[in-house]
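Batch job 17 of 40 flagged for manual review because the log was empty.
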Amino acid sequence: MMRPKKMKNLDEQGTNPELPVPLRRSLTVLWCSFLAAGAATMVTFALLDPARLWACFSFGGGTPNHLLFYSAGFFVFWAMGTTAAALTAFMLSRPRT
């Protein structure tokens, strides 16, 4: 059985347009943590109501801004996910010799 040739990813000039490894690793960390933050935000605010959080922590009168809670929650989860993914990428990187 013949295997197909592995094709190189070349641009118009015939060069390989791959990103440098550190940039590719950083973008991978950010993208994975972004997806995790989206999922964590959906699960968290499916279970918790921002109006109850507003009343629980006694932020004063008025109505809670739901978008503020959703946005703040997303960015907190994104920061936590980025930290965890960056530490994982750091620990999986090969030691320099």
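Reviewer: the log was empty due to a logging misconfiguration, but the result itself is present. The chain has three helices and no strands. Unflagging and moving on to job 18.
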